[in-house]
Amino acid sequence: MKFYPINLNLKDKKVLIVGAGKVALRKFKRLLLTEAKIKIVSPEFNQEFESFLKKDSEQYTFQKRKFRNKDLFGCFLVFAATNNSELNQNITVLARKKNILVNTVDNAEISDFTLPAIVNRGELLLTVSTGSSLPALSKNILDIMSENRAKIIENIEDDKLRKNIWLFDKCCEI
Ligand SMILES: C[C@@]1(CC(=O)O)C2=NC(=C\c3[nH]c(c(CCC(=O)O)c3CC(=O)O)Cc3[nH]c(c(CC(=O)O)c3CCC(=O)O)/C=C3\N/C(=C\2)[C@@H](CCC(=O)O)[C@]3(C)CC(=O)O)/[C@H]1CCC(=O)O
Ligand SMILES: NC(=O)c1ccc[n+]([C@@H]2O[C@H](COP(=O)([O-])OP(=O)(O)OC[C@H]3O[C@@H](n4cnc5c(N)ncnc54)[C@H](O)[C@@H]3O)[C@@H](O)[C@H]2O)c1
Q1: Which end of the chain is more exposed for a tag (fewer CB within 10 A), N or C?
Q2: Which UniProt keyword terms apply here (predicted)?
Q3: Which residues does ligand 1 sit against, CB inside 6 Å?
Q4: In testing the pocket of ligand 1, which one of 33, 114, 119 has its CB within 8 Å of the most ligand atoms?
Q5: Residue 1: inside a domain
């Protein structure tokens, strides 16, 4: 196992995302589910950020400019999520020197952590990782699991077992 699974409490922790493209947006949306203080630095923002750019929020700030070394100050986590591989690598080296955990979106080998695919219902969290070897497969596995759920349940002949599964669904709705 290359990566150690861990669930982080990000309450009031400073998290920096460098870059605001499609991949950064995905990291951002997942961070919004936590209580992290998020800062995003990027000269260009993907248009899906627009609705967030319009709103004032205590949870996030956006800086429309290039990355500067001092952006790392006080950070607990960093996402190097630009389309410039060399820059992502430089950010990784700088963050590591400051003991900040870093996810390098285009290079799992130098990342301190990777993100799994998730299904989240309340406090229930299902995650799938492939140790970064087949990233697109992680999401696929979860999709197939949920698509197949209905069919699997229909085919369970044991009434008691089927009821227990519905009970599980009820818990997931909380
Ligand atoms: C699960 C998910 C979580 C998330 O990112 O939030 C995630 N990738 C997702 C989507 C996705 N990934 C890719 C595509 C385009 C696919 C296509 O269509 O071709 C799409 C779809 C899209 O982008 O729409 C391709 C890809 N991904 C990575 C590379 C390597 C590189 O760039 O060098 C390449 C390009 C090379 C390749 O294909 O191999 C790298 C990583 N991706 C990881 C996670 C980490 C390992 C996880 C694991 O251990 O399995 C890791 C190491 C980095 C990290 O931790 O970030 C998320 C699903 C979220 C959801 O929607 O639920
Ligand atoms: N981790 C994953 O799941 C995954 C999936 C697909 C692709 N990738 C890789 O992730 C990288 C990013 O992909 P994307 O689709 O988000 O790219 P993108 O082109 O949509 O976005 C790149 C962002 O980086 C920003 N940027 C560029 N220079 C910068 C600088 N000096 N300072 C701050 N921000 C800067 C740009 O303004 C832009 O917002 C690519 O290298 C791609 O290969 C990773």
Answers
A1: N
A2: NAD, Oxidoreductase, Porphyrin biosynthesis
A3: 26-27, 30, 103, 105-108, 114-117, 129-132, 135-136, 138-139
A4: 114
A5: no
